[in-house]
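STRUCTURE:
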């Protein structure tokens, strides 16, 4: 996923009801609304990602069924 400069994805109402999400930053710098550089976003956990820099923020996202 690429988040363009000054843009964001997700937000306070964003969650995945049927899967956990793993997020790996592979390029750029941004702000995630939950703590950590490598962040597991659990099923149903609301989250968002914001690019606050002048370069694209690139991530690789994996989704897994809940445990």
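SEQUENCE:
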């Amino acid at each position: 996923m690429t988040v363009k400069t000054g843009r964001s994805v997700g937000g306070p109402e964003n969650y995945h009801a049927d899967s956990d999400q793993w997020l790996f930053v592979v390029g750029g710098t941004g702000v995630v609304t939950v703590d950590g550089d490598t962040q597991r976003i659990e099923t149903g956990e609301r989250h968002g990602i914001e690019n606050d820099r002048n370069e694209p923020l690139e991530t690789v996202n994996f989704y897994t069924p809940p445990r």
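REMARK: The chain has a mean pLDDT of 76.
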